[in-house]
Amino acid sequence: MSTNNGNGTAATGGPIGKSVKRVEDKRFTMGHGKFTDDIVLPGQTYAAFVRSQYAHAKILSVDTSAAKAMPGVVAIYTGADVAAVNGVPCGWQVNFKNGNAMKEPKHPLLVADKTRHVGDAIAIVIAESIEEAFDAAQTVNVEYEELPCVVDAFKATQPGAPLVHDDVPNNICYDWALGNPIEEVNAAMSSAAHVTTLEFINQRLVPNAIEPRCYNSSYDAINDKYTLYTSTQNPHVIRLLMCAFVLGIPEHKVRVISYDVGGGFGSKIFHYTEEALLTWCTKQLGRPVKWTAERKESFVLDAHGRDHITKAEMGFDSGGKIVALRVKTYANLGAYLSTFGSCVPTYLHGTLMQGLYTTPKINIDVTAVFTHTTAVDAYRGAGRPEATYLLERLMDLAAHEMKIDPAELRFRNFIPPFDGVNQPGYQTQVALQYDSGNYHAALEKGLEMLGYEDFRKAQKESANNGKLLGVGFSTYIEACGIAPSAVVGSLGARAGLFEFGQIRVQPTGKVTVYTGAHSHGQGHETTFAQVVADKLGISMDDVEIVHGDTEKIGFGMGTYGSRSIAVGGTAIVKSIEKVIEKGKKIAAHLLEASADDIDFANGNFTVKGTDKSIAFGNVALTAYVPHNYPKDLEPGLDFSSFYDPANFTYPFGCHIAVVEVDKETGKVALKRFIAVDDFGNIINPMIVEGQVHGGVAQGVGQALFEGAEYNEHGQLVNASYMDYCMPRADDFPIFETATQVTPCPHNPLGVKGAGEAGAIGSTPAVVNAVIDALWSGGHEVKDIRMPLTSERVWRAMQN
Amino acid sequence: MSIKITVTVNGVKHTDKVEPRLLLVHYLRDVLRLTGTHVGCDTSGCGACTILVNGKATKSCTMLAVQADKAKVTTIEGIASNGELHPLQEGFNQCHGLQCGFCTPGIIMTACDLLKNNKKPSEEEIRVALEGNFCRCTGYENIVKSIQYAADKMSAPKARKTKKEATV
């Protein structure tokens, strides 16, 4: 096991813990990345879709006759053609409070009866060129009868609301609760000396990976084999869902390849209808079919994130200790259940209601609702940003209301430090057991970086010169390293969440690593190579990481939930251990010693207490040229492992934002952003810091800039980059980042994962800072709806 | 109807007959198969398609191929020379200026234009110069550092090889 040097790294003398430059960069910076849209297959055809302009409409007729006569058209299919094909499935079953299974209306590959959101697919047009496909798609004549629609999750549950699915009463997919019995929570809340109440909207976000989704599916009739190139975060999962649940094709007849993927942020986890439809089409045509989303399609088709309407109450005793938390959330699922849409507002949200605090009584109640909007699913953080936003907004607001310093209020309520080894993990009121944590230290570090006392002085002075300064805190925790299969299985997951890792030592001692994790920006080709080179004592140049191809990699569950290093990395480590164990047997034979007497270090097998030694490369060669070889040992040096984690991992930290609000205009300027994160041990600090930067940018984006806006007709009115405010380079200050290390006690690398923390911790820090600025100017504002545009902040100051 | 165009791309002259409606980015990607230039939004919002047209950063998704007739075009594939990376390509690696790498070619080409006109841009000038380019992965900070790295390298006096060193 790596030792921890206290600087956010796991130093061993080898590559682990070093900011090694990324090995994958060269192909991207030279323009030689291999993204799905870069692939053109022999006999390629191109697809365009006819999509609903209405959020809710009955389809009276679809006339494709003119389109079929257009030049270059190869085929057109409508909902009637795929009526017998299954819809795309949901991967997680959440039950109603009464035990009944959630409502799972079919999500068809093409709709035949009615459309349920703008962008719902009515027909696919396949042509010799993309231009011809677009031209023909425009001539498909669809007759609609527009129906009333509903886009707001709460309104959708009210009597008389239009139904998205006729067989889902009140549009409720499920209702669900977690935590202590509500009576106990109510009693504790009644006893509170102070109750802080916050009603807010955690707005809908569009993930906006810069690479639009792209699929290219082909069929080889001779061998009855399919190949699907797809921009996905988890090729094996797509193969499983598409083959077993949608198309009924045997998995071994399908190869799914996902080479370079241009960002995911959750939106490329899910099995989308187009993947299955293109695969169905290629079999009909015997020619490859390719579709690349236009950005306007990405806006209305890629699963959105967040969209909660919440009322949260936090009760405190007279000393500022939390006595109870009560939460009611309406979660918008959109028109259809996306692959993991059901688990985001429940098992990735409700389970985080403990936060970093010793809250003794907690109850969260969630109603998940269908509306005539784009499906909502995991977006960077997935449920945990919503939980953190809720808790951290309550904490800062309670501090204002009770006139207690917000940092002090947190110190009074933090769970004391525990390492998960000498002290047990912390059992929450909401099902999870935290692995290890040191929450005080993270906040103390953040306050030190901020220069808290000086800040408060500056805040008082700033009010005199037209600007209001504010500071906002967010001390967050998240559940990563997803996930122990048995645990998630008992909670409704329909998949195991282990990972696969294979170490193939080549005869010359070079190593090929096959991982089921998928890199779409995370830098696995570097980080995993660091782990392997470090553990085997070889050069990183001698290690190659292979991912994203179901034909090459034994299995895989993919990348999401900050799981790659904690779960995928551990699977690799398990295989390395097997390589070393077998290597010791070979070395013992060659060195005429007992395997128990062989040490492995720095790439050499050595007989303990002697200078008799043999290099890793020579052992590898012997394994493949086994002339002088142990009698009962198989040749070869190639091991696979499946690793199922014992627990989630629980990264945590402290994010602090400093903002300046213009009193005249309400314009918010983010002046400083401080992030102190504890990810356990860190393999590559440079890459981890990059993950924090990107996550913070997305979290700040939610606080200040972004938000999907539907009008009453169900139109996403800001579905373009002219209208949806994506953060730009000049929106950010230099981020001030630091890490501390509380190793994960239950995996061999001691790692927790870093992909989502930035997006989880940052949003409430920024909003709290604006609220703090306003309070410092005498505006006792409880909430401003995100994103905090100048207008909204200005209006808040007028009250 | 097709129109004949002649475009010099990365120093190589190409003559093709193209549809008048063909976008320059599709000419590069689909006709010349230079796939380093990406399409992120088709509406000149994201900047992933940025190339140099006659030396000027241009969004190739908002320009027709026929408009590039007789133009000199440089794409991401054309900025390394003799196997040596351009200082920007090196800088993005050294400063971790990319993650998924999809927006990177467009950002590098935008930065090429910036550094041609401003040898020593400030942090703010770089951030403003990038206003036409989205990156969803990095939070931009390391992109700024990457461009600063390149600016420093490009403005540093070139190390002259002495005769002795050259023969070593």
Question: Would you give an account of this structure?
Answer:
The complex is a heterodimer of chains A (799) and B (168). By secondary structure, chain A is of the alpha+beta class. Chain A has 19 helices and 28 strands. In chain A, helix 17 crosses helix 18 (757-776). The longest helix of chain A has 28 residues, at 564-591. Residues 1-10 of chain A have low confidence and may be disordered. By secondary structure, chain B is an alpha+beta fold. In chain B, 34% of the residues lie in helices and 15% in strands. Chain B has six helices and five strands; from the N terminus they run E-E-H-E-E-E-H-H-H-H-H. Chain B has helices spanning 24-31, 87-94, 104-117, 123-129, 141-155, 163-167, and strands at residues 3-9, 12-18, 50-53, 56-59, 72-74. In chain B, helix 2 (87-94) crosses helix 5. The radius of gyration of chain B is 17 Å and the shape is globular. The interface between A and B is large, with 55 and 56 residues.
